[in-house]
Specification:
Blueprint (H helix, E strand, L loop, with lengths): L1 E6 L6 H10 L3 E4 H11 L1 H7 L4 H8 L3 H25 L5 E5 L14 E6 L2 H12 L3 H9 L4 H4 L5 E4 L4 H15 L1
Parallel strand pairs: 1-3, 1-4, 2-3, 4-5
Helix pairs in contact: 1-9, 2-5, 6-7
């Protein structure tokens, strides 16, 4: 089984790539869903931060790097275990994918045989984030700037998919990438 990580900075279009993979018949794990599940169900987070509300937590931790680090120390090991469980359940598949936005930040590289990076220009991601999430400019910029720069991640990946065009073009680029990796 080939284990492929799918990553990219916020609003780069990972969900679009994930949907293309699912429609192509691949099994795809979503680390965001796993993190959100643990976030709202964790007594440790409730005790540490006084809330399990995602919106309140996001505003708190993205304004304070120390609190963000503490939250990640709680969530990342849980997500890592969920990824490993997903691999175990799907071990008869030729290839499986895990969409992990913070793959490098969390130190999850060792879980994967190959890594795909989804990229989009900063201004495109900023517009997508404001439109998709209803964030104002300053908060959207804060969220974008809280992640490591793409330039430090792309060289560590086996394939980069630039998502700056139509869905049809994205689909074509995903298929090209899969031909290279699988």
């Amino acid at each position: 089984m080939i284990k492929v990580g799918l990553t990219g900075n916020i609003a780069s279009g990972k969900s679009g790539v994930q949907n293309i993979l699912l429609l192509s018949g691949y099994k795809v794990f979503d680390a965001d869903e796993s993190a959100h599940f643990h976030l709202v169900n964790s007594k440790v987070i409730l005790d540490e931060f006084g809330t399990n509300d995602r919106n309140i937590l996001a505003k708190t931790v993205f304004a304070d790097k120390t609190k963000l680090k503490k939250l990640e120390e709680i969530i990342h090991p849980l997500v890592r275990q969920d990824i490993q469980d997903f691999f175990a359940v799907n071990n008869s598949e030729k290839a499986v994918f895990a969409s992990v936005p913070l793959l490098f930040e969390a130190g999850f590289e060792d879980l994967f045989d190959k890594v795909i990076f989804v990229s989009a220009p900063y201004n495109v991601r900023l517009e997508r984030l404001m439109k998709r999430n209803g964030y104002d400019f300053d908060y959207a910029k804060l969220r974008l700037d809280s992640q490591s720069d793409e330039k430090s991640k792309i060289p560590r990946c086996d394939c980069t998919i630039v998502n700056d065009s139509t869905f049809e073009e994205l689909e074509r680029r995903v298929k090209e990438c899969l031909k290279l990796l699988l």
